[in-house]
Structures are given as structure tokens and as C-alpha cells.
Amino acid sequence: MSMNNLGIVKRNIVRADEAAVAKLSRFGVASIHEAMGRVGLMKPYMRPIYTGANVCGTAVTVLVHPGDNWMLHVAAEQLRPGDVAVVACTTDNEDGMFGDLLATSFRARGGLGLVIDAGVRDVKDLTAMQFPVFSRAISAKGTVKATLGSVNVPVVCAGALVNPGDVVVADDNGVVVVPAAVARQAADAAEAREANEADKRAKLAAGVLGLDMYKMREALEKAGLKYVD
Hints:
229 residues; alpha/beta; eight-stranded mixed beta sheet; two-stranded antiparallel sheet; 10 strands; elongated
């Protein structure tokens, strides 16, 4: 991260088209990732804090320093209804930067959830609140408020580039980032993919084998597969 990105809060960001976000919310991370051409995934260590947690919204990005959650409080003010806070850290960190009090504040602003490449705590309370959090770690270790980071600058979170206003979709399969500019396209492609999968699912349920549905037998034979009785 370049130093000129530190100590900045960008107040006016362009968020992805609302209709596209709503449409993307109907589909899972795997479908969207595949539909976009297998891009946009965060690293698989990003996990939901409770089973079934899922969220789809526009990114308010936060850049923090290890062991310091000052900028999460700054970010709360920038949240609008439908936003998801996406927190990247200047270096690897697993400290518990977020808990139920910040979640209460985020929710009051209309924030839908949190994606954080660091730690969270108060998991029982967050689960009771059904406030979806996807994190690198769960840690009781507290943080300080000492060093300036930034809000609403481009960040790399768990290996994925996130620009403010991009769409972030997260579920049990992980987290995917959809650039705002292609949100509509991605939603349409995910819809087409799901329709195609529904057709395949019906065939498989009826007993058709993938070997036949995907016409694999000839290729397997060419590759030298032999059946022995």
C-alpha cells in the first residue's frame, strides 16, 4: 500500500447499481465466481463465523494497521444501508479487531456485514445478532487506537482487489468480489449458469451419470482407461 493512501477518508463513493446488487444476492459465491470467469475470490482462509452466514452488498473499504481498530470506528460513519465493510491490514494480523459493540454500530448505520482479513471476537453475540462476519481468524486479543489508516481507498483484502463500491458476496463457500462496472453482467451470467445447473441436477437426480451427460467416455477411453471384471 502506498503511503499516500494513509490518513484519507473518501466520503463520496460510487456504489454498484442497486438492481445488480439485488440480483447478485440471489446467487452463491461459487456460481458468481465461475460466471465471472473464475476470478475475484478471496483466499480460502476467509471463513464465516457461524454456519449459514451470508451477505451481499457494496464495499466500504478500510485499511488498518495490525492490532489497531481505530479506522473501523471512522468507517462506521461512512456506512450506508446495503454496505459491507471490507477490512484489509497493512500486514498479516489476527487480533480481534471487531466485536458485538461495533456490529451494533454498523447495523445502526445500515451496514449488512463485515469481511475482515484479521481477527474478530464476541462470536457468540455476533451469532445471536445474526450479523454476518467473514474473517481470517477468531481471537480474543484486543486492539489499540493509535495509527491512522484509510477509508474508501482501493485495498487488497485476502488476495482480492476491492475498490469502494464494488459488490462483495460471501457465503459458506467463501468471499467473491464483483467489480461495480461488471455487476450487471456478472448477475446475468450467474443467472444463466444457475438455470443450466438446475437442468443438470434434474438429470443427475433421474439417474443419468456425469460420464454420459458430459460425454466423458470417449475421452477416458482415449486416455487409456480400462474396465476390468
